[in-house]
Amino acid sequence: xxxxxxxxxxxxxLVVFAQLNALAKDAGLLYFGxxxxxxxxxxxxxxxxxxDIKNFGQYTPDNxxxxxxxxxxxxxxxxxxxxxxVNRALSNKMLMRCHTLVWYSQLPGWVSSxxxxxxxxxxxxxxxxxxxxxxxxxxxYAWDVVNEALEDDGSYRNNPFLKALGDSYFAVAFxxxxxxxxxxxxxxxxxxxEYFPVKADGAVRIVKLxxxxxxxxxxxxxxxxMTVGRTPSxxxxxxxxxxxxxxxxxxxxxxxxxxxxxxxxNSSSLQAQAKEYEAMVGSCLDVPRxxxxxxxxxxxxxxxxxxxxxxxxxxxxxxxxxxxxxxFSSVSALLASASGxxxxxxxxxxxxxxxATKPAAATPTA
Length: 366
Description:
Belongs to the glycosyl hydrolase 10 (cellulase F) family. It is found in: Secreted. By secondary structure, the protein is of the alpha/beta class. Helix content is 37%, strand content 17%. The chain is built from 13 helices and 11 strands. The strands form 2 sheets. It has an 8-stranded parallel barrel with strand order 3-4-5-6-7-8-10-11, surrounded by 7 helices. Strand 9, helix 10 and strand 10 (250-259) form a beta-alpha-beta unit. The longest helix is centred in the C-terminal third of the chain and has 20 residues, at 267-286.
């Protein structure tokens, strides 16, 4: 069944019947989702779109489940903001991709500045993972267990976990996660896997370490923070996704945005952005074990990009007034055209590989 894409004006503001999630599910994905924050409620137009399951079928908390938010001091856990997001998702009948447990950044000082042995760090990791996942047990479809553990050259990023445990910390984290919530899908998540084959191979190495330890790992999340003019082709993106499918894993785009640099954007850069969003979404559709797509915010007014990258922005499907951009139209049309071409996610078990030319490394612009 193909779903119409409608727009209309009601009492002033533009009301967009985006239906991205409905279209994505009709095309065989499990969800089309977005990152969310408790502060989103301050923008009524944005919040209305965010809370409609036809638009988004999955939430990821942008910061509320990170270590500094959930365990700011040792053994004292705080879940207020995360609970508000999870409860809203469940009320809306949406899935939760929960994020994140073990990450080098946004650690409270007691973790980042602590003096840890192998045993004491193992105990800290077990306590944190068990408490946080235990609190949300049964509510998270998936967890990003380890996040951003690689440098762009494929080497391990220095962090307190690596310093104390060496590369065994990957299997340790996934082991504790599997015990805390056996029903959750457990992911390794990172950025620039799409750009750098050597980094993508580093993620393969992490997966194999966990698998060799006999510990469950179910997927790799590719963050997909892209730059207009630098996004790999649909074929090369598909090739990268299939590196992980070959390891009997699911894959997902977990933090998708495509920033424009330099600003201001214009009709040409917005059209280029639309084509690159189409390539990203299309590559997921090309891989039967690509579960779904999560935007890292869907409106330019809520994007993290302008505060992080100089003279860059306008990275989302909707503009600062929550009105659809050409990229929204491109993604919607692509999803609509894919209706019925892939089995619904709950019956899709194919590990069919899509052959693509091995991509060359591409350097993203900062």
